[in-house]
Design a protein that fits this description.
It is a single chain. Helix 1 packs antiparallel against helix 4. With 122 residues, this protein is mainly alpha-helical. The protein has four helices and no strands. It binds protoporphyrin IX containing FE (HEM). The site of protoporphyrin IX containing FE (HEM) has 22 residues, from helix 1, helix 2, helix 3 and helix 4.
Length: 122
Amino acid sequence: MSFAAYKVIHILGVLFVFASLGALILASRDGAWGGRGRKLAGMTHGIALLVVLIAGFGALARLGMPNPGHWPMWVWIKALIWLILGGIIVVIRRSPQLSTLLWWLLPLLGAVAAWAAIYKPA
Ligand code: HEM
């Protein structure tokens, strides 16, 4: 698969990550954690993170940086953000009072990941 194709799939995964996080935040905020919508969003969240990771590593391999020994700072920044976007589901479920803050903060974290991919701080 080409580098460009990996990037398109990578960004598709990112879009699904944020669609699902938005739904999970609102489900927690509205006390609808047990609802069918939350289950769909939870499943999408997991699958999307996997797509981001696999396509991200595919793109990294095309850039000649297959393993962590070769990773510059910008890749570590994105890997950390990926971990946060995975683990945040626990905070969303346990702390509905943080919903509004997370609603605005998480997309900003996504912007930091995009910045890292575009400006590539070494
Ligand atoms: C382990 C996790 C990740 C890896 C290995 C990874 C890897 C990559 C790579 C190799 C690129 C291509 C960079 C280039 O064009 O030269 C890329 C682009 C991108 N990544 Fe990631 N990424 C990861 C996580 C994320 C996350 C969590 C987000 C957003 C929340 C994200 C958003 C983006 C965006 C928006 C681009 C396109 C930037 C552009 O237009 O050039 N990535 N990523």
